[in-house]
Amino acid sequence: MNRRNFVKALTLSASIAAIGLPAGAHAADTIKVGILHSLSGTMAISETALKNVALMTIEEINAKGGVMGKKLEPVVVDPASNWPLFAEKARQLVAQDKVAAVFGCWTSVSRKSVNPVFKELNGLLFYPVQYEGEELEKNVFYTGAAPNQQAIPAVEYLMSAEGGGAKRFVLLGTDYVYPRTTNKILRAFLKSKGVADADIMEDYTPFGHADYQTIIANIKKFAAAGKKTAVISTINGDSNVPFYKELGNAGLKATDVPVVAFSVGEEELRGVDTKPLVGHLAAWNYFMSLKNPENAAFVKKYRDWAKKNGVPNVDTVVTNDPMEATYVGIYMWKQAVEKAKSTDTDKVIAALGGQTFKAPSGFTLTMDKTNHHLHKPVYIGEVRADGQFDVVWKTKEPIRAQPWSPFIPGNEGKQGI
Amino acid sequence: MHAMMFFKRMLGAALLLLLAAAPARAALDPAALAGLAGDFQSRMDAIEALGVAGGDDARRVLDALEAGHLGVIGERAVIVDGDRVRDAASGAVLELAAGDVEAITMNNRVRRTLAGARAALALTAPDRAERLAAAITLGDSPNASLLPVFERALASETDEEIRGILLRAAARVNLASADAQIRLRAVQALGESSDPAVRALLEGLLEKRDGNWVEPQSEVRAAADMAIHAIDRRIAVAEGVGTVFSGLSLGSILLLAALGLAITYGVMGVINMAHGELLMVGAYATFLVQGLFRSHLPAYLDWYVAAAIPVAFLSAALVGVAMERLVLRHLYGRPLESLLATWGLSLVLIQAARVIFGPQNLELANPSWMSGGAELAAGVVLPYNRIVIIGFAVFVLVLIWLLMQRTRLGMFVRAVTQNRPMAGCVGVPTARVDTLAFAIGSGVAGLGGLALSQIANVGPAMGTGYIVDAFMVVVLGGVGQLAGAVWAALGLGIFSKFLEGWAGAVIAKILVLVFIIVFIQKRPQGIFALKGRFADS
């Protein structure tokens, strides 16, 4: 009895204390931030590095005095490539740990599953990966690319003389919302450029698919019809390793049928022998091989951090586009909190629009005032024998995101929140 | 379009060089190399110019470019040769650090130009393999300016295979000839091809444009029609073989994943949910062997897979013995409890792998002799790693069959399976036989993991993806039967590959599951059933 009364009293006083204090001040000298990335399962290949770079950035900010004089305290959870678990973990981070912001998610299906949680609890999510667009949440900031900042320029490049003048396209993806929506946009875009339906082949595989024999045989058959063919891959996660292995073994060379991938970067190619893949392409807003002082510092910082923290296979660690987007996202949030002088979600959202940051991509990136997306430069790179990319095409300026693709009917007048 | 034009011009120039049989010449003019430092267009022009210049020096520079050793320092083109830096034009060693060299990058257009230039130069090389590769490269995209190159090469070429490729490449160009006789001969020559691209080309002749046939001569059209039929037959055969092969390959993987389970579940009646994790143990053992070879025997790295065979078997067998001794032994005859207990064990093993090796997938490189593939016909390639795995599956199968049918232990296992109390009565140590049989089943799963590591991803949770497939194979084949598992694995493999070609990977997976549900409804005992007095026990 006594003990129960004591617990009751404690809860009561705690809740009174919580009511009495302003929001966000419950942990007096630290600000908690959540990191929501799969550290196991099919997406761990891509997302583990994002957790690492987030921790590195937080350490760096803390070493420079934190945010508004307070140290950041990362709360890392593992949603294990399990989409409903993402929502549970997000709820735990926002409701229980009371984090000021969450940096996380890779696949669109995981983002779709956490969106209602952030909306309901008025949390703040920074999403660092290129995606299909077609959404604009007040509580989400998108630091990756929208389709017009990655997919569309990549296809335009493939169709240009410089990119090989492709006339026939294979749209190949993992079976979920991002590849399906992106391919819907690309199909509409290709049609607007006069590509017939017969010249487009669309195919999907389940998550974690490992047997690409049939699909690669089909691609070869499709490419033999006499027109220059290119493959646009939205395969996500560790399926990319067997896909590229099979591609190399089947002798499908980039000079015959180039494959441009939207979810394959330096990190995904670490597990692959890239010599047979030389010349295949990826479109991103950042490559590790970019030469500028910000990037050199960024790469060095990450290497040092990985060495210090015993990241497995530390000799071969790489940086990639979503890592850069995570880094930029955390700094933009820090700047916005300092501008708003509060970690209150609504105040930070208001302060985020118009923030700028000199990013490792070599440009000063701006957070758009209305649409929660970054203005980003676009790079197209070709795989080198060492698993890095040579930039073969780039935009002169960062371009503004169009989260609502103009190639999908009914999207007119939907830009901005 | 531009690419094609430069390609043609460059090859025309290369041809002039070949006809003139350029004499040995002095070092290259550095100015000719300056363009390599510019943009992609000027790089292509420079490669073209090198093709015109020809000779050993030009070839040396082009080879360095292909290998990625060509770079620039300032305006000067250099070749990185190990730690030394050589001047690209003269070949002289320069006092420069290799780290300062900025490598010359290519895009696919430049790469194509380079491949064409090198192939045209290599068509008269003394080495047969080099000529063959050059002929294949040029034969893929022949054009009119290449025709004299082909004819010249044909005049001196004696190898039948290379001649065939060159003849068909020349025929493709001759399809556009003004002379109907030449076109007819070209169409007839192309009938020997099995390349779908050639088929598309011939089909173009049979089209009507503005009411007129693209090919005016009816005789040529008839020949083209015949040629298309011949090519179609060859393509159909090659594709059929390709599909059956990929089915066999999938079947061999399913078999390797399921064979261990066929012993532990099929023969011993233990529902082992941790079977997938035994695959994972085998794959991780392979990874460790690869690591040992990398650090201690780098010269023999290509053979780490062979060395990993006993290691994978033994490590998985040891884990199996530990599982049997510590947990399963106490649960024989209680299938539900053993199901739960082994599922728990699988979680423990996954987490253990995560803690020890980290959650990320491991990188396992295919040895060089398992990379690449044998080309059966245009478009149908049989990858070596899959061929090796089919062979490996046969090897494991024969091993298990010999063990079960030809050894005393095998006889004991069969005896215990059929009638445990009676076997015990006549002096078979049933408890030890159980342990050994479980160890063998686990070891075979380890070998399956070794095979999987060569084509699929290796990570802590890799086993969960195969456990369902493995049970599918064993149940479909008939519990208690190794032969059933073989037929079920091959049947499922080929069946899903034909479905996949027809309906796509996602639908195929669903259809296979539906098929198995229906099949088990109709025939619960599987393809093969135990017959005789003990069938029900």
Side-by-side strand order of the widest sheet of chain B: 4-3-2-1-5
SSE string of chain B:
HHHHEEEEEHHHHHHEEHHHHEEHHHHHHH
Order of helices and strands of chain A: HEHEHEHEEHEHEHEHEEHHHEEEEE
**Helix count, DSSP H or I runs of 4 or more residues of chain B:** 21
Question: What does it look like?
Answer:
Chain A has helices spanning 2-20, 44-63, 83-96, 108-121, 151-159, 177-192, 213-223, 240-249, 293-308, 321-340, 345-352; strands at 30-36, 71-77, 101-104, 125-127, 140-142, 168-174, 200-205, 229-234, 259-261, 281-284, 356-358, 364-367, 374-375, 379-383, 389-394. Chain A has 417 residues and is of the alpha/beta class. In chain A, the strands form 3 sheets. Chain A has a 7-stranded mixed β-sheet with strand order 7-6-8-9-10-14-15, with helices on both faces. A 5-stranded parallel β-sheet of chain A has the order 2-1-3-4-5, sandwiched between helices. With 537 residues, chain B is mainly alpha-helical. Helix content of chain B is 67%, strand content 6%. The longest helix of chain B is centred in the middle third of the chain and has 50 residues, at 218-267. The N and C termini of chain B lie far apart (74 Å). The chains are: A alpha/beta (417), B mainly alpha (537). The interface between A and B is large, with 56 and 64 residues.
Outline the secondary-structure elements.
The complex is a heterodimer of chains A (417) and B (537).
Chain A: H1 2-20, E1 30-36, H2 44-63, E2 71-77, H3 83-96, E3 101-104, H4 108-121, E4 125-127, E5 140-142, H5 151-159, E6 168-174, H6 177-192, E7 200-205, H7 213-223, E8 229-234, H8 240-249, E9 259-261, E10 281-284, H9 293-308, H10 321-340, H11 345-352, E11 356-358, E12 364-367, E13 374-375, E14 379-383, E15 389-394
Parallel strand pairs in A: 1-2, 1-3, 3-4, 4-5, 6-7, 6-8, 8-9, 9-10
Antiparallel strand pairs in A: 10-14, 11-12, 12-13, 14-15
Chain B: H1 2-20, H2 30-34, H3 40-53, H4 55-67, E1 70-73, E2 76-81, E3 84-87, E4 93-94, E5 102-103, H5 108-122, H6 128-140, H7 147-156, H8 160-174, H9 180-190, H10 196-205, E6 208-209, E7 212-213, H11 218-267, H12 275-296, H13 304-326, H14 335-357, E8 373-377, E9 380-383, H15 384-406, H16 408-418, H17 420-425, H18 430-453, H19 464-477, H20 482-503, H21 505-522
Antiparallel strand pairs in B: 1-2, 1-5, 2-3, 3-4, 6-7, 8-9
